UniProtKB/TrEMBL annotation:
The chain crosses the membrane at residues 6-29, 77-99, 119-141, 162-180, 192-210, 239-262, 282-302, 322-339. Its EC number is 7.1.1.-. NDH-1 is composed of 14 different subunits. Subunits NuoA, H, J, K, L, M, N constitute the membrane sector of the complex. HAMAP family: NDH1_NuoH (MF_01350). Coiled coil: none annotated. It is found in: Cell membrane; Membrane. It is a multi-pass membrane protein. It comes from Aquipluma nitroreducens. The keyword Repeat does not apply. GO terms for biological process: aerobic respiration. Belongs to the complex I subunit 1 family. GO terms for molecular function: NADH dehydrogenase activity; oxidoreductase activity, acting on NAD(P)H, quinone or similar compound as acceptor; quinone binding. This is NADH-quinone oxidoreductase subunit H.
Amino acid sequence: MDWTLYIYKTIFLVIIFLVTLVVAMYSTYGERKVAAFMQDRRGPNRAGKFGLLQPLADGVKMFMKEEIIPTTANKKLFILGPSIAMTTAMLTGVVIPWGGTLTIGGREFSMQIADLNIGILYVFAMVSIGVYGIMIGGWASNNKYALLGSIRAASQMISYEIAMGLSIIALILTTGSLSLNDIVQQQHGMNWNIFYQPLGFLVFIICAFAETNRAPFDLPECETELIGGYHTEYSSMKLGFYLFAEYINMFISSAVIATLYFGGYNMPFIDQLGLSPNLVTLLGSLFFFMKILFLIFLFMWIRWTLPRFRYDQLMNLGWKKLMPLAMFNIVATGAYYYFTVLI
């Protein structure tokens, strides 16, 4: 075993884990500030300078709240539900290339924890498993509102996964690889897939909103109908896990979108600056995070701009609009490469 590589991967894994938690934590702060800006108010401004300690105050509140498990709930599954949701949300980031390669002590180390040749399929697998955390939590609560919320979540996520998967097929036809690292390397400079697959990107990002249960697709936790949806009976850190998993999923979804369609860590014209390879890698990672933060802002912008769909409108959009568009995109992409490349 190469212990140097093993130690590097372990350290990098811990760093990505901590960065994911910090970004998700301060996404709650950003959400409130964006909402406040759009509604012409201040938002959090009491806990620390500019309210920057508000996420820490929220975390302490979650830890200190009383732990309540309903007497009629299935205790083991009640605990398992948020655990699955949080675990699958954290596992998705291991295949994302967060940067190029760093040269340390004459050796090159990749800023990717696991370069799987089926990286896209791994992301979809983790997203699919996350549905079980929501479904188990809603059913184990023994509450009709929680059960309805979990059923809604499961049917919504399964429906939109189909259109999302179809949009990815067209992207695979364009790139010829399932590896996220290969896809990023093919987008060197400004050769981004958004210019080749605009329709696929549109379908993918709409499905990403639905997969993360973000407004206007937040039907599983529709307060006006289902109180709190699948986490109605949850309190303390179990509720915190569900809420935190949503923001982690939003962060990872933004990272996947930036990887697939916006060149990942590729920074235009950086090769012309004559910088050292390590500095180029670090600047590329910084540029990658800037793309992610913009996409997170887009998630928040949409939430505070568009009203929530009715459930029938949600399903009609997924099955009757996005799926045919994704299938048309596959046919159009295949026809284009058949007539321009193969012939």
